[in-house]
Amino acid sequence: MIQIRDIESFRAGLSGTALIQGNDGYDQARSAWNGAIDRYPAVIARCQSAADVAAAIGTPGSAPFVPEQFHFMPGYVVVIVGFGSAQDHAGVLAPIRAALPPLFEFVTPMPYTQLQQMFDQGTQWGTNCYEKALYLDELTDEAIVVITEQQVRKTSPMSLLELYRLGGAYAEVGEDETAFGGRRTSRFGLFMIGLAGDPDLLVAERAWVRSFWEAMRPHATGAGSYVNAMTEIEDDRVRASYGPAKYERLARIKAEYDPDNVFHHNANIKPVLQPI
Q1: Strand 17-19 vs strand 44-46: parallel, antiparallel, or unpaired?
Q2: Which residues contact 145 (CB under 8 A, 6 or more apart)?
Q3: Buried b (16+ CB within 10 A) or exposed e, 87-116
């Protein structure tokens, strides 16, 4: 449970405000944060500066499992998710610990819905965002060099790089069995995400994401990516994400159900007006 003295200490370090249940404006703030989900956050920070964001979000923050000497320090986090037994999970973790001993760790069972919400605090409603992504067939030494060089050039403590290993069940589904953009082979998804609490601060993060993306292009599998990771919808990149054959098939389906392209505020597949 959060103590009142901790709330007051947190408030004292903000140029913005921190609200708890019972404060004026709390209900309005939690509605904006949660949308249609009726929740009551312990604390809602209304940030007015980058320093406020760093204090509220943390890098990695002041979670109970983070040793104090690592509070708000930049670093790399490995998130390992397993759906088997605790023994199975321990077996997966053991060689990783041996190869790269972590500075700290937190291992616990949790509901799948909680897993989905793990990063919600850093991407609250109203956060300014610019995002681009790529696929990598391999995480080569050369690609790692680019990542380590580019990652430290961000200026917002909220901005981040997400690297997903795509394999297992993902790769067992046939490429033509779903509308998912791209191949179903084992590979990596790389997401460069610029985040800022203030629109003016997003300018530098947008430039960082674009520079990072261009630097990674020589190591990527074309210009396509996970389509939800396109802040700017570029037609050539949408086509590259699906591939020619799948894009053409989806365009024919689109013509059948939405010939006037009413639903076009997205990574749009334009209808091809011919019989499917």
Answers
A1: antiparallel
A2: none
A3: eebeeebeeeeeeeeeeeeeeeeeeeeeee
Question: 101 preceded by cis ω (within 30°)?
Answer: no
Instruction: For 179-211, write each residue's pLDDT tens digit.
Output: 887 788 899 999 999 998 888 889 999 999 999
Antiparallel, parallel or unpaired: β 160-166 and 187-196: antiparallel
In this prediction the pTM is 0.74
Rounded Cα distance, 175 and 177, in Å: 6
Neighbours of 150 (CB within 10 A): 19
- Tell me how far the alpha carbon of residue 82 is from its chain's centroid: 19
Q: Is 79 part of a structural domain of the chain?
A: yes
Same domain? For 212 and 161 the reply is: yes
Domain contains 11: yes
Domain count, the chain: 2
Residues 97 and 143 grouped into a single domain = no
* pLDDT tens, position by position, 101-157: 888 888 888 888 888 887 777 777 788 999 999 999 999 999 999 999 999 899 888
Range of the structural domain that residue 47 is part of: 4-116
